[in-house]
Amino acid sequence: MNLVGCVEDAVAIVKGSLVSCVLLPFFMFLPVLRELAMVNFMTAVKAAKAEGKGIEIGDLLKFDRLVDKFVGVLLCEICIGIGSILLFVPGIVVMGVLAFAPCVLADKPEIPFMNVFKGVLAYGKENLLKQCVLASVIFGFNAAGFMLLGLGIFITLPITLAVTYLAYENCKDAVTPHLDEQEAS
Fold first, then answer.
1. Where are the beta strands (DSSP E) in 16-156?
2. Could you read off the pLDDT of 39-83 as tens digits, one per residue?
3. b (16+ CB within 10 A) / e for 156-167
4. Would you list the domain boundaries of the chain?
5. pLDDT by residue (tens digit) across 115-131?
6. Which ranges constitute the DSSP H helices of 108-152?
7. Cβ atoms 85, 124 nearer than 8 A
């Protein structure tokens, strides 16, 4: 996984769609819309990378497969929250292990959220160090965004979500067999 390349690509995508990307953190305060906007933003990053189109505000509010998007991301958030309550390090580990769940929900919407969760969990366990480095970078970048009276998060959150999706794209060939295993069982 080339993290530096992912950051460069993410900054370019966010720069090209600055208005809708800056509005993304507002959705993070609203239940249900937070999870939906996160997965939809990653779907828009996928389209921006593949087709070169910008991210529109309407791209963040697509309600197709709402239950899978909501429950899948909420399940990850609960696990990360429990890990963070235990101590900081378990939270980073759980965040790293489950980092690609919203990405898979965005990339392969036909896969049920429970299969996504199990497949990403299996991949994350095998690539624990790499995933923990990714989670630490994402956490550090977002923490830095909160330092400016919380205003920096309007730029850092879209960038980190885009970095996460682009890192998933780099590792997609390694993640897919774990998802296929879950589909078969």
1. none
2. 999 999 999 999 988 899 889 988 888 888 999 889 988 988 888
3. bbbbbbbbbbbb
4. 3-184
5. 999 999 999 999 999 99
6. 113-126, 128-146
7. no
